[in-house]
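User:
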Amino acid sequence: MSESVQSMKATASAVAEQVPSVLKAVRQRMRTLIAVQLVVAVGALGAAAWGFYSLQQYEKRKAELQQEIDAADSRLKGATDNLTAAQAELEEKAAEVGELEQRREDLAQEIDQQRQSLLFIENAVALIESEEYPAAVDALTKARDASPDSTTVLRLLSQAYAKTGEFGDAVETRQAAIEANREQNPDKVYASKSNPFALVDTADDIAWLAIYQCDAGDYSAAQRTFRDASGFVLEDLRKGERDLVEKIQEACADSPKPVAPQLALDHGASAPPPLNQTEERARERAEAYQIREIYMHVAAKADLAGAQALRQELEAAGYKVAGIDVIGGKKGYQRSVRYYYDEQKAQVAELSGLICGALGGGLASCEEAPMAEVPLVGLYKNLPRDRVEVWL
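Assistant: Predicted structure:
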């Protein structure tokens, strides 16, 4: 029994001796575990802090990227708007270019028609001068086809028809000239007036229409022509167109009734003025048609130097040179002095001689290129009575 007790005491003593070391080991392991847990906790806290920081940086970068995206979207929208505006402007410009191109083509066609018409007119004038009236009618018919609204062509054609005895065609063509002149001067037409064309119709057109009507034997039509004529036309005929009045009187002499009683023609015409009054009127008329002004045309720029030299000679002789125009070489171009009134014919011959004596500066002499005298009487309206044109 005692041995058992002694053994138990020995065992207890041995256990008691081992307890401190065991406790020490336990405490050491606990400290290690706590240290590990602390490290883990600190790591977790650091990771959380880093994650929070990264999240903030992410949000910041996200906001920055969103701003960049918004700015890019704004720029894209602006660029799209600019592109749309540019496309609209481009389409508008393309439409304008198309319109300009069409206008250019129309002008080119119009210029070509006018050029062809001018060539036909020049040829017709030469044919009329040589009294080849049927050929002149053919040339002017072609000119009318090229420029159907040209009053110049229509007036010339009516004159050529009359020379061939085709008075009906002459009447019709002169009426067409009057209508074309009215259409080309809409700003002078007054719908409220009893005669809306009072400021449009010319004494020359009305007189020649009546002459052709009388030549055709249609005296009643001639009477209507003068009955419908404006006071301006009648006043011009009474005061300044004595030669036309005489032609009316001659053409309508066989009318059973006065054709133009407003002009004191035909039946009961007024007596001629005394001789001294006639001479005075002749002097006044000659003075009114005295050539004082010249407009020059040259075929090319190379001729300008010679034209300027001639200009000085003409101005030294007392003429005024209103201008020099370069028209370009044309088929049928003819060196000439062109005048519009019969009263200028004798003066034109004198002027031609002066020009031929003064030519130089590279311009061909009159022996090389003769100076023609071209009458265009009655073709152009409201031109100064003291002007002619010189074509070099």
